[in-house]
Amino acid sequence: VVEAMRKGGWNLGGEQSGHIVMTDYATTGDGLLAGLHFLAEMVRDLLPSRATAASAARSPLRRLPKGVREVIGARFNALTPPCLDLLQRAAVIGRQFPVALLSRLAEEALAPHCLDMLQEARTASLADESSDAGTWMFSHMMVRDALYDELPAAQRQALHRRVAEALAQQHADD
Fold first, then answer.
1. I want to staple 148 with a disulfide (CB 3.0 to 4.6 A). Which of 6, 57, 91, 109 is the partner?
2. Burial class of residue 164 in the structure, from the number of CB atoms within 10 Å of its CB (0-12 exposed, 13-18 middle, 19+ buried)
């Protein structure tokens, strides 16, 4: 992870285990260190701005500290629009998502290209294959939450309905 972070010029990253790595302070994931710096960022971000609930509601990523928002946002900006759309659909499924289910949620023309788009997400360190065959997962829950929060409520609701229908169809004989 640290090697990829250095190549990309990043100082904040995540290990598959969920540990946060901050190369400015250590070269391994350290939960206590990460927690303290995350808290410090939150305090720094919230105190000067005195953000109101209304402004926080307009900016879904506002709930995350500024440094974290910038790292996640930069990775999202590097994605093609179809890949970003697919990841938002995956976010509705959850932290882990079966590719077969995700393919059912994808736009019809893009469904055959799901694995290509997931590879793009892997390159951006946003998602990777999980240990369960045919299943991928977001690199960190904050990535999943940021994608999910960016979806308008009506679109989230429609995608939840599609997930439920696809699961019901998949398990109709159970």
1. 91
2. exposed
- CA end-to-end distance (rounded Å), the chain: 41
Q: What is the pTM of this model?
A: 0.64
Q: Tokens 């904050």 belong to which residue? A: 142
Cα 68 to chain center, whole Å? 12
Burial of residue 168 (number of CB atoms within 10 Å: 0-12, 13-18, 19+): exposed
Residues 80, 49: Cα–Cα separation, whole Å? 32
Helices (H), 80-174: 81-93, 99-105, 114-123, 141-150, 153-170
Any idea what DSSP says for residue 136? E
* DSSP letter assigned to residue 107: -
Residue keyed to tokens 């240990």: 131
Per-residue pLDDT of the chain (174 residues; tens, 9 = 90+): 777 777 877 767 777 666 677 666 666 666 666 666 666 665 565 555 544 444 444 444 446 677 777 788 888 999 999 999 999 999 999 999 999 999 988 888 788 899 999 999 999 999 999 999 999 999 988 899 889 988 999 999 999 999 999 888 877 877
